[in-house]
Design brief:
By secondary structure, the chain is of the alpha+beta class. The protein has a domain of 46 residues. The chain has one helix and three strands; from the N terminus they run βββα. A three-stranded antiparallel beta sheet has the order 1-2-3, covered by helices on one side. Strand 2 and strand 3 form a beta hairpin. The chain starts with a strand and ends in a 28-residue tail after the last helix.
């Protein structure tokens, strides 16, 4: 994972990934938020996404054909 930093150059803040400048913004707060968002997005891409049909995940869907016949209630 890259190391992100924020440096002030003149009146602007520059977001850097490693040694490369990637973005200029006027607010340090905005720069910090963008770095946080980028890290969260990269982390979410790195983690495996489970499909809703993954057998490891519980499901509320059922196949009516596989359900046993229940006795009628009087």
């Amino acid at each position: 994972m890259k190391i992100y930093s924020i440096v002030k150059i003149g009146d602007e803040y520059v977001v850097r990934a490693g040694e490369k400048s990637v973005l200029r913004v006027a607010s340090r707060r905005r720069a910090a938020r963008l770095v946080t968002d980028a890290v969260e997005l990269l982390d979410s891409l790195a983690s495996p996404q489970l499909s809703p049909h993954d057998p490891g995940e519980p499901s509320i869907a059922c196949d009516p054909e596989s359900m046993p016949d229940l006795p009628e209630v009087p």
